[in-house]
Design goal:
By secondary structure, chain A is mainly α. In chain A, 74% of the residues lie in helices and 3% in strands. Chain B has helices at residues 4-23, 27-52, 60-77, 82-104, 110-129, 131-134, 159-181, 183-193, 195-200, 205-231, 241-254, 261-277, 285-300, 305-320, and strands spanning 140-141, 147-148, 151-152, 233-234. A two-stranded antiparallel sheet of chain B has the order 1-4. In chain B, strands 2-3 form a two-stranded antiparallel ribbon. Classes of the chains: A mainly alpha, B mainly alpha.
């Protein structure tokens, strides 16, 4: 029983992490129709900037996390401007932007390696101490992640549903031409979507930097998991993506309990292939 | 696609490559040529699925890695003759491609990218987790080397390995030229350019995709086997982003519509990256330079540099009329 509860809690932590990662991917996908391969690298940028501001400049973890979020958001806007926007009218836009964002990932990762070096770094916990949930002890920082993730997701959802700016993102995603006719500045909407998504990645990275080590390649494993999530959930719908994120988090936690750490990624992938064979648009995917 | 001047240029290139070791005795330069041959096989075969068939395959390096580990395990663990172990790499790579192609053939757009990309991660995880078979993160070392009769290929400053690599590249090019000029190759382009029309004309889109992926894996896997036997090492690094982006840039810079563009790009880029690796402080920066070059090519010459060269001559001939 105790092992079961512990697994549930660890699934909740993983699910929160994957939900934050994949919702960012989903925002860019629904607005621009671009799959951003540099999403994991943006997460890493957030973590490194947070580490530099918090530890090197000594401004503390809160300022660090905020600057990490902001920095990642800015880098995201630059990526959109230089590597995505020039290809909008291209017939193979989907494939080309997959390649350019992959190139952006290489540039960011190697650049981080050159700037910060290979030494392992870690951020301090945002909140010290431990918390007991369902009879399991986890660090207060992980508990914060569990609480924060749904709050951010709901805020993001409210933003796209209730505010004019948020609605303009969805309008652009559905039909660029009519959105432009309605007076929506399409390029601004694109930059905004990319910026929000990148900032979300930066925040995730800064939070993850206290749980795992901050390294130039720290983003690639979460990105791979986020890919599995979006395959399960489909990319088109924020709610479905978030649901799939928690589902994958729980499945992964239970697989680790039952099969051990080594076989878990393998089984997850096999599950994914089965899903694709029978539901090519994802478990919760509509069309 | 291969008109007469092109064909002559290709024959001349291979003839030139065939005499290089007679003049170049430095073992490091020969090593660079061998690595370039391996990358040329990877890039030009990748082009078969990515360029000719339009399958957004991001998992091509997995076939290479599977070839590497097949040859390593077959030769070291089972003591199979390394010549045969190399060829076995092509077989297992093609089988894995068939396995991957089954779900991929049914998918569209971004989901193809995601699945093929995640496939690489799956195989990497498998290699890392089965450390008693694959050596885990450290990989496998001291693999058996090639011998022909009593001649050891370790002698004569890589002279023998150079020709094995060149012959491998030549066979791979012949194979690709044959495939792309056959009616099958033409149907691949039809599937890429007008999927609905191709389907209406009776081409099975799914079957062509499965075939293209499987065919593109054969020589890639053999190249992986050769790479492992030549370096006598199998390491999980072959699945990494570094190898992937380097090979991808060769396909893009060489041009996605040709057989020989990626081959040329592989030769040029291998030497360019190695030259940069020699410069102080460029160990990481060279990957950034290549990534930037890839973006610039996509931006300025989406059909590849080889195509750009071809187009430069075109306005001149038009000007005369």
């Amino acid at each position: 029983m105790e092992a079961l509860l512990a697994t549930l809690v660890s699934g909740l932590v993983l699910g929160s992490l994957y939900a934050l990662m994949s919702s960012g991917l989903s925002v860019v996908w629904t607005t621009l129709g671009v799959f951003n391969f540099s999403h994991g690298a943006l997460m890493m940028v957030g973590a490194f900037v947070a580490w530099t501001v918090s530890e090197v400049l000594g401004l503390g973890p809160v300022v660090g996390i905020l600057s990490g979020t902001l920095a990642a958001g800015l880098v995201g806007i630059v990526i959109e401007r230089l590597l995505v926007r020039p290809f909008y009218s291209n017939r193979n836009m989907l494939l080309i932007t997959a390649m350019t964002t992959l190139a952006a990932m290489v540039i960011l990762e190697r650049g981080a390696q050159m700037i910060w070096g290979a030494r392992l770094k870690q951020l301090p916990h945002l909140v010290p101490g431990e918390v007991r949930i369902l009879g399991t002890t986890i660090s207060a920082h992980e508990a914060l992640l569990i609480v924060l993730a749904p709050l951010i997701l709901v805020a993001l959802w409210r933003f796209t549903v209730t505010t004019n700016r948020g609605r303009s993102l969805r309008a652009v995603g559905q039909n660029q031409d009519s959105a432009a006719l309605l007076g929506i500045d399409v390029p601004v909407a694109f930059a905004l979507a990319f910026g929000i998504s990148a900032a979300l990645a930066g925040l995730t990275g800064a939070l993850l930097g206290s749980i795992r080590f901050v390294t130039p390649t720290m983003g690639s494993e979460p990105l791979t998991k986020a890919m599995i999530v979006v395959i399960f959930g489909g990319l088109g719908n924020l709610g479905a993506t978030a649901g799939a994120a928690y589902l994958i988090g729980f499945i992964e936690a239970f697989l680790i309990l039952g099969l051990g750490l080594y076989w878990t990624p393998f089984v997850l992938f096999l599950l994914m292939i089965l899903v694709l064979l029978f539901r090519p648009n994802g478990v919760f995917g509509g069309k | 696609m291969a008109n007469k001047p092109q064909l002559l240029a290709i024959v001349a290139l291979f003839a030139a490559l065939a005499v290089v070791p007679l003049f170049v005795t430095d073992s490091y330069i020969r090593h660079l040529f061998i690595i370039a041959f391996v990358y040329a096989v990877i890039a030009s075969n990748w082009n078969l699925s990515l360029g000719h068939c339009g399958v957004f395959n991001f998992g091509h390096l997995t076939f290479f890695g599977i070839g590497v580990y097949t040859a390593a395990i077959a030769s070291k663990t089972f003591g199979i003759n390394p010549w045969i172990a190399m060829l076995l790499g092509g077989g297992t790579a093609a089988m894995s491609a068939l396995l991957l192609a089954a779900p991929v053939a049914r998918l569209k757009g971004i989901y193809v990218v995601l699945v093929t990309f995640a496939f690489t991660q799956l195989v990497l995880q498998l290699v890392l987790s089965q450390s008693q078979i694959t050596g885990g993160a450290e990989g496998m070392v001291r693999l058996p080397f090639l011998e022909l009769g009593s001649y050891s290929f370790l002698k004569d400053f890589k002279f023998g390995y150079y020709y094995v690599g060149l012959v491998l590249l030549a066979f791979s090019c012949l194979f690709l030229a044959f495939v792309s000029n056959s009616s099958f190759g033409k149907s691949l382009k039809a599937v890429r350019d007008a999927e609905d029309y191709a389907a209406a004309r009776g081409i099975s889109v799914a079957r062509q995709r499965i075939l293209a992926l499987t065919l593109s894996a054969i020589f890639t896997g053999i190249a992986g086997g050769f790479y492992a036997i030549y370096l006598r090492v199998a390491s999980p690094e072959v699945f990494g982003f570094g190898t992937l982006s380097l090979a991808l840039s060769m396909v893009l810079i060489g041009g996605v519509n040709t057989v020989f563009g990626p081959v040329l790009a592989a030769l040029v880029l291998t030497f360019a990256t190695e030259a940069m690796a020699g410069l102080q402080g460029f160990e990481d920066a060279r990957f950034i330079v290549i990534a930037v070059a890839m973006i610039l090519v996509l931006r300025l010459a989406p059909e590849g540099l080889v195509d750009l060269l071809g187009r430069l001559r075109l306005p001149a001939s038009k000007a005369r009329t």
